[in-house]
From TrEMBL:
<dbReference type="Pfam" id="PF00702">
    <property type="entry name" value="Hydrolase"/>
</dbReference>
<dbReference type="InterPro" id="IPR006534">
    <property type="entry name" value="P-type_ATPase_IIIA"/>
</dbReference>
<dbReference type="InterPro" id="IPR036412">
    <property type="entry name" value="HAD-like_sf"/>
</dbReference>
<feature type="domain" description="Cation-transporting P-type ATPase N-terminal">
    <location>
        <begin position="18"/>
        <end position="90"/>
    </location>
</feature>
<feature type="transmembrane region" description="Helical">
    <location>
        <begin position="243"/>
        <end position="261"/>
    </location>
</feature>
<dbReference type="GO" id="GO:0005524">
    <property type="term" value="F:ATP binding"/>
</dbReference>
<dbReference type="GO" id="GO:0046872">
    <property type="term" value="F:metal ion binding"/>
</dbReference>
<dbReference type="InterPro" id="IPR023299">
    <property type="entry name" value="ATPase_P-typ_cyto_dom_N"/>
</dbReference>
<keyword id="KW-0067">ATP-binding</keyword>
<keyword id="KW-0479">Metal-binding</keyword>
<dbReference type="InterPro" id="IPR018303">
    <property type="entry name" value="ATPase_P-typ_P_site"/>
</dbReference>
<protein>
    <submittedName>
        <fullName>Plasma-membrane proton-efflux P-type ATPase</fullName>
        <ecNumber>3.6.3.6</ecNumber>
    </submittedName>
</protein>
<dbReference type="Pfam" id="PF00690">
    <property type="entry name" value="Cation_ATPase_N"/>
</dbReference>
<feature type="transmembrane region" description="Helical">
    <location>
        <begin position="661"/>
        <end position="682"/>
    </location>
</feature>
<keyword id="KW-0378">Hydrolase</keyword>
<feature type="transmembrane region" description="Helical">
    <location>
        <begin position="764"/>
        <end position="788"/>
    </location>
</feature>
<dbReference type="GO" id="GO:0016887">
    <property type="term" value="F:ATP hydrolysis activity"/>
</dbReference>
Length: 824
């Protein structure tokens, strides 16, 4: 294509369907493109005109997001309180409650915006890449930079990044996400493939027709799951919060009935009910969930693990077994040819040379690269030979195929798993087979994997590269490939065991190789072939899977079966994978982990995508997820104890004084002070547990209930201190109780955040700053009478000291309750 020539505007306004009836040459002409691709300058000019290959997401305006903070159950309650206070003549209280609602809205909005920014960064790091021909060189770019006229390479496992027309090759594509059709569709030269289809088989060079919003289905490839289903963690917390709401409703109903008996005015009774409900509604739940998960997601990204959905962080905390692909996690995924053995009549150089002819540099396959490097290192010339067709490695057939032409003769060349190739070489003598198998066993003892190379003559060139072989393939020989074990694998496996997570190794290699690598990595020698499960009933299979250290000779589709069997045995499963056929297992596992070089479809199916190789990243991800669980557990315990304490105190106060011991303003201040601190739990210095975490709803609720009742008793004791020791009137008594509850709420967070003694770990800097500043502000308010009636420094100091001493003493029964109800 000539430099500087610009396509007509109309070329880019045509729908993808308009290209269906055009030949490849007509399509190229219409797009002013070439099979040699665009130049960087041409691509840049088109990108500037047409925009990114992305569909702009509809995002709420920041103002609308902020105003939404005034809409919902908790804002409604506070807004009712504002109206009631104003109607009863308490204008100052009404204004202050509105200010508190607004401050809470601002804080929540800022935290939500920061969390959204963190999620956007994760989405950018998980962008789909494309292999594109620019300036006559293949290069990898962000798929959003593709433009019509680009030439791209689509391989097995790729998510098609734009609407394209196949130039060369064949694809079997999954269009179920677009059309709902579950069966793969076969696409050949000049066929159109739509954006977001998945390449299930084959490889093709394609011409980009339309991008972004101009694609036929209006979808662009994405690895991030935008839809966020309710996670198990959210269900647990919502269940607990719902019970607290029921408690609040029952309590307010009981007090309301008693108030009616006492002939208290209806509006006052209504204000009592609102006060009760304000104390029971989880105002910070949505914000805390998002903030904690987004913060954890950002931390995991820094460690080399990107989450495709935030609730994956929660899932990782419960993992009790991780199934590893040997390659890339336990080994270095850096293959090299370290040995060979030739069949009679061939040399070892013949094995390498013929294998090289059945390899592709463009394929970016590790085995192909290792073979081509070996051929180059040995100076083996392949001139005079041409590769007429190439079929990349297929997990289903476990081989690569090519048709080559050398000196006028054509051959069908195969390379792949030794048992597969040997089975095809039916004319190979038993002695030759025995000799080859002996070499395979010898290489396996050293941990080397082997592949076999064979060829079958196709006869003289006839113009038909698909001609049937004249005879069965002839075995050329085998190649030994080394993939050294990672230096950190053994230590990381030990770390995994220390977390009470069982490692299981999965590999398609032979039993001998698998056992050798497994022992070297410290996983164990108890490796079996997947074939041993055949003939067992499902129960026996599940028991067997739970006992072994790994599987050899597996196909990718076996991984799904293994995950299901482990789950049947009661395990929460983590599974690593990289290929298109790993997708079902990655989706089935509680924690699907796509390794750094995984296919797009594997990444799309996984909940975690690694950006670094090795087991260490997975260990760090599990530890971080367990710390996140501890932070959310602290929030739940703190919430339940607070509700029990406040409702118990309100009921006792009403029956003692026939009035509310806390006004609507007091309750609003208490909620604000408590929620301001709990938001800072997202960065608390939580310790990761040494065992998989489980949400034991009943145990957590009972332990929290017990602690809450003790705190309610403390509050009742505070009432008597204010009344009998300090001689306070009712108005100042309300202030004393409010300050006592606020100081207690700050100390309570510091106590319940640690399942052991509270001094066993240092709280996070933000948590300490939040609790310290909150107590300082309310101490000054109580001492000098800002917003609330003045108590004086002595009485305020007594409320602080009483709260400090009681919560410090509470640490002992707290540990007892946590131990008794197995809350850890």
């Amino acid at each position: 294509m000539a430099q500087g020539v610009q396509p007509s505007t109309g070329a880019f306004s045509d729908s993808t369907e308009a290209f269906k009836t055009l030949s490849l040459e007509e399509t190229l002409a219409k797009l002013n493109a070439s099979v040699d691709g665009l130049t960087a300058a041409e691509a840049s000019a088109r990108l500037a005109r047409l925009g990114l290959n992305a569909i702009e997401e509809k995002k709420a305006h920041p103002l609308a997001q902020f105003l939404s903070r005034y809409w919902g159950p908790m804002p409604w309650l506070l807004e009712i309180a504002i109206l009631l206070a104003a109607f009863l003549g308490h204008v100052t209280e009404s204004v202050i409650i509105f200010l508190l609602l607004s401050i809470n809205a601002v804080i929540g909005f800022m935290h939500q915006r920061n969390a959204s920014k963190a999620l956007e960064l994760l989405k950018k790091r998980l962008a789909v890449n494309a292999r594109v021909l620019r300036d006559r060189n293949w290069q990898t770019i962000d798929a959003t930079e593709l433009v019509p006229g680009d030439i791209i390479l689509v391989k097995l496992g790729d998510i098609v990044p734009a609407d394209v027309k196949i130039v060369r090759g064949n694809l079997s594509v999954d269009e179920s996400s677009l059309t709902g059709e579950s069966l793969p569709a076969e696409r050949s030269e000049n066929s159109i493939v739509y954006s977001s289809s998945i390449a299930r088989q084959g490889e093709a060079t394609c011409l980009v027709l339309n991008t972004g919003g101009n694609t036929f289905f209006g979808k662009t490839a994405s690895l991030v799951k935008i839809a966020k289903p309710v996670s198990h963690q959210e269900e647990v917390m919502l269940t607990i919060v719902r019970y607290m709401m029921y408690l609040g409703i029952v309590s307010s109903f009981a007090v309301g009935i008693y108030a009616l008996v006492l002939h208290i005015p209806f509006l006052m009774i209504l204000s009592f009910i609102v006060t009760f409900l304000i104390g029971a509604v989880p105002v910070a739940l949505p914000a805390v969930l998002t903030i904690v998960q987004a913060a954890a997601g950002s931390q995991m990204a820094k460690k080399g693990a990107l989450v495709t959905r935030l609730d994956a962080i929660e899932d990782a905390a419960s993992i009790s077994v991780v199934c590893f692909d040997k390659t890339g996690t336990i080994t270095q995924n850096k293959l090299s040819v370290v040995g060979s053995a030739a069949s009679p009549g061939f040399s070892e150089d013949d094995v390498v040379r013929i294998a090289a002819l059945a390899s592709s540099a463009d394929n970016m396959d590790l085995i192909d690269s290792a073979i081509l490097n070996a051929a180059a290192a040995r100076g083996l010339a392949t001139k005079g030979c041409a590769q007429l067709s190439f079929t990349p490695f297929s997990p289903a057939t476990r081989r690569t195929e090519a048709v080559i032409e050398c000196a006028g003769s054509r051959y069908h060349v195969l390379k792949g798993a030794v048992p597969i190739i040997l089975e095809l070489c039916s004319d190979t003598s038993e002695s030759a087979r025995s000799d080859i198998n002996a070499h395979v066993a010898l290489f396996a003892q050293k941990g080397y994997r082997t592949i076999a190379v064979a060829r079958a003559p196709l006869g003289a060139a006839t113009g038909n590269v698909q001609a049937a072989p004249e005879s069965p393939p002839e075995l050329i020989g085998i190649l030994a490939l080394a993939d050294p074990i990672r230096s950190d694998s053994r230590a990381m496996i030990a770390d995994l065991r220390a977390l009470n997570v069982k490692p299981i190794m999965l590999t398609g290699d032979s039993l001998a190789i698998a056992r050798e690598i497994s022992v070297q990595a410290g996983i164990g020698p108890n490796i079996i072939s997947i074939k041993e499960l055949d003939g067992m009933d499902e129960g026996a299979q599940a028991r067997k899977v739970a006992q072994i250290d790994g599987f050899a000779e597996i196909f990718p589709e076996d991984k799904y079966r293994i995950v299901k069997l482990l789950q049947k045995s009661g395990y929460m499963v983590g599974m690593t994978g990289d290929g298109v056929n790993d997708a079902p297992a990655l989706k089935q596992a509680e924690m699907g982990i796509a390794v750094s070089n995984a296919a797009d479809v594997a990444k799309a199916s996984a909940s975690v995508v690694l950006t670094q190789e090795g087991v260490g990243v997975i260990v760090q991800a599990i530890r971080l997820s367990r710390r996140t669980y501890q932070r959310m557990l602290t929030w739940v315990i703190n919430k339940v104890t607070k509700v029990v304490q406040v409702l118990g105190l309100l009921i006792a106060g009403f029956f003692l004084f026939r009035n509310m011991i806390l006004s609507m303003l007091d309750m609003s201040l208490l909620v604000f002070a408590n929620d301001f601190v709990t938001m800072s739990l997202a960065t608390d210095n939580a310790k990761d547990a040494q065992a998989p975490n489980q949400w034991k709803v009943k145990n957590i609720t009972l332990a929290s209930l017990a602690i809450g009742l003790l705190l309610a008793a403390q509050g009742i004791g505070g009432i008597f201190i204010g009344q009998d020791l300090l001689g306070l009137d009712f108005g100042h008594m309300q202030t004393f109780v409010l300050l006592m509850l606020i100081f207690t709420s700050q100390f309570r967070v510091l106590i319940v955040r640690e399942r052991r003694c509270f001094w066993d770990s240092m709280p996070g800097t933000l948590l300490l700053a939040s609790t310290g500043s909150t107590m300082a502000i309310f101490f000054l308010m109580g001492a000098f009478g800002f917003i609330i009636p003045a108590l004086g420094a002595r009485e305020t100091g007594l409320a602080l000291a009483y709260s400090l001493v009681f919560t410090a003493v509470l640490d002992c029964p707290k540990r007892l309750f946590f131990k008794l109800f197995h809350v850890d």
